């Protein structure tokens, strides 16, 4: 067996798998003509209605507040765990925290502590703590070891970090934290769809009423908020934003939970029903078998099908779209329009895009696949466009322009990076595919949402464990493939991105 795996063979394998699964994907339109509704939506979007300024401003402020509070707590916890990340219990805890999507954390926490600001903040902080710990630990490992080695041998890990590593990695840590805040803004908007008072809640309300002009205003404000994040969030202003965020969230009123709700959640609700009812292991096995046949296997199948088809669509969008952001390929006007398109698609969360497509096509895998492919393809296309701009000055003076430049110069040079980025996003697409079930699409998230609606928290916990195992499996396969391919420019630490964008591999 050859040590190096051909990237082109990997592409053929993934396309073949998606092609075999495509006939089994539910891509039908739910029995109605989507074009009249699409026409009304486009007409509303063309005339954004900003009349509900006060409501819109409050939702925007809360969206920022949830993101800032959640990211700040997650970053602080990750910073504390990073020097100890090489210890197995700490690493296992971080893996468990980041394996569960923010919206699933929110659903669980609402069951445990009620629908309020603490549930929303912790839904972001818990998975982000695991992500920050991993990223910060890798940054520590990649830092110049000479300052650490100069300290006395018995110096503890925390002191080595504070005095030797932290001064060297402060800049990349801040850059990654800012990027994670952008992710937190998307997650903060999405948790509004399950009842928390962010932009997602308002967007859902306006769509249910058919007020597409107001929905358009929300989307415009949201995209502008994401696009300008590097202007209004500066490191020196971070303390102000953190204080303002927690102050605003303290004013959010929530319905009171009964006394002992959290203890009941931990000691009873998450325990499988057969064990609570005294049926023993025999009852537990029967319960798991019924659940596996009725929910786990169908949920896994639909989640994997959506993931694999969406991954191929992601690759198509990224590969054929990254040239839109390169002036030498598409021209100055084309670059401006292409950049606007890519930024818009990458700014809107997959869940929000799927929600929009769901209004048009109805509940099937089609809205999920389109949303996942367009969003992730735009992220990769944007990164490849940035890298293409970086290598253009290194090319010969008589290099071609336009499509010839894209086809004969840029695409071959960036193909390895393109494939590595798709593999980086593979596990993320899987988790997002599961989340789409909350919209009524029959992935694993559908059964989790149904279980929580029926107050069967024990079933939801089992299904979340299945998602975590699937994510870990995909991540391990992805890592192995990237190492076998030995893509040029991918280091042993699997950093395949531009220096300013490297942290996005963990998004």
From TrEMBL:
InterPro entries per the UniProt record, alphabetical: MetI-like_sf (IPR035906)
Gene3D superfamilies found in the cross-reference section: MetI-like
Keywords for this protein: Cell membrane, Membrane, Transmembrane, Transmembrane helix, Transport
Subcellular localization: Cell membrane
Membrane topology: Multi-pass membrane protein
TM helices/strands, residue ranges: 7-25, 56-82, 103-126, 161-179, 186-207, 213-233, 240-266, 309-331, 352-374, 433-453, 459-479
KW Cell membrane (keyword) present: yes
UniProt key word Transmembrane: yes
SUPFAM superfamilies, per the entry: MetI-like
GO cellular component terms given for this protein: plasma membrane
Protein name from the UniProt record: ABC transporter permease
Originating organism: Paracoccus aurantiacus
């Amino acid at each position: 067996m050859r040590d190096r795996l051909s990237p082109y063979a990997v592409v053929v394998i993934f396309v073949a798998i998606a092609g075999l699964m495509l006939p089994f994907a539910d891509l039908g339109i739910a029995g109605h003509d989507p074009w009249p509704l699409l026409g009304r939506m486009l007409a509303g979007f063309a005339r954004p209605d900003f009349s509900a300024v006060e409501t819109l401003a409050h939702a925007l402020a809360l969206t920022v507040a949830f993101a800032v509070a959640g990211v700040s707590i997650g970053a602080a916890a990750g910073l504390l765990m990073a020097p100890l990340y090489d210890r197995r219990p700490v690493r296992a805890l971080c893996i468990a925290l980041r394996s569960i999507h923010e919206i699933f954390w929110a659903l669980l926490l609402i069951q445990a502590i009620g629908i309020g600001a603490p549930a929303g903040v912790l839904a972001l902080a818990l998975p982000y703590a695991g992500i920050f710990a991993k990223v910060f630990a890798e940054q520590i490992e990649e830092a110049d070891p000479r300052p650490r080695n100069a300290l006395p041998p018995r110096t503890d890990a925390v002191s080595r970090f504070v005095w030797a590593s932290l001064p060297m990695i402060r800049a990349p840590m801040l850059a990654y934290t800012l990027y994670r805040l952008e992710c937190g803004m998307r997650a903060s908007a999405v948790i509004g769809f399950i009842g928390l008072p962010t932009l997602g809640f308002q967007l859902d309300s306006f769509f249910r009423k058919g007020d597409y002009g107001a929905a358009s205003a929300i989307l415009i404000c949201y995209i502008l908020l994401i696009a300008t994040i590097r202007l209004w969030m500066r490191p020196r202003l971070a303390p102000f934003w953190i204080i303002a965020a927690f102050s605003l969230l303290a004013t959010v009123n929530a319905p009171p939970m009964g006394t002992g709700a959290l203890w009941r959640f931990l000691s009873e609700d998450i325990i499988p029903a057969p064990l609570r009812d005294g049926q023993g292991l025999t009852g537990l096995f029967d319960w798991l078998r019924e659940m596996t046949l009725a929910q786990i296997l169908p949920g896994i199948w639909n989640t994997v099908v959506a993931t694999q088809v969406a991954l191929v669509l992601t690759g198509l969008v990224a590969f054929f779209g990254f040239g839109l952001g390169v002036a030498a390929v598409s021209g100055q006007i084309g670059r401006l329009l292409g950049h606007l398109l890519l930024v818009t698609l990458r700014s809107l969360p997959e869940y929000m895009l799927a929600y929009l497509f769901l209004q048009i096509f109805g509940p099937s895998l089609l809205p999920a696949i389109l949303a996942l492919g367009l969003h992730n393809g735009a992220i990769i296309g944007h990164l490849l466009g940035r890298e293409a701009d970086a290598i253009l000055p290194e090319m010969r003076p008589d290099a071609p322009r336009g499509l010839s430049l894209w086809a004969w110069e840029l695409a071959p040079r960036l193909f390895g990076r393109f494939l590595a980025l798709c593999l980086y996003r593979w596990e993320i697409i899987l988790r997002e595919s599961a989340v789409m079930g909350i919209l009524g699409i029959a992935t694993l998230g559908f059964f989790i949402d149904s279980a929580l609606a029926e107050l069967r928290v024990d079933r939801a916990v089992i299904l979340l464990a299945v998602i975590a195992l699937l994510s870990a499996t995909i991540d391990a396969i992805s890592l192995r493939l990237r190492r076998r391919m030995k893509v040029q420019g991918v280091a042993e630490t699997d950093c395949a991105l531009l220096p300013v964008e490297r942290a996005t591999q963990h998004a």
